[in-house]
């Protein structure tokens, strides 16, 4: 992955809703099942009342907001250890 791609990923992350994202269950159906799922942060609802979202997808989206900056930091750390700022050729 080159610097341009990493910069674009970081920009998308930084433009997203701030805060810790978590799965959100918006309402329950009459039969007791979850009828709507979404993702929210401590600032705002990110995705709301999406009744057809699979739980696994909601969990992935919610955790991506925490995972992306951790992965970017790990890439920076590994590049520093290798003494190579751009690993595009690897």
Count of individual domains: 1
Q: Shape, please? A: elongated
Overall helicity: 40-55%
Mean pLDDT: 78
Number of helices: 2
Radius of gyration: 17 Å
Largest sheet: 3 strands, antiparallel
Distance N to C terminus = 8 Å
Could you explain the architecture of this structure?
- The protein has 90 residues and is of the alpha+beta class.
- The chain has one domain (3-82).
- It is built from 2 helices and 3 strands; from the N terminus they run H-E-E-E-H.
- The chain has helices spanning 3-15, 55-82, and strands spanning 22-28, 34-40, 45-50.
- The protein is elongated.
Output the keywords.
3-stranded antiparallel beta sheet, 2 helices, 90 residues, elongated, alpha+beta, single chain
Summarize the SSE layout with pairings.
Layout: H1 3-15, E1 22-28, E2 34-40, E3 45-50, H2 55-82
Could you give a short description of this structure?
With 90 residues, the chain is α+β, with helices and mostly antiparallel strands. It contains 2 helices and 3 strands.
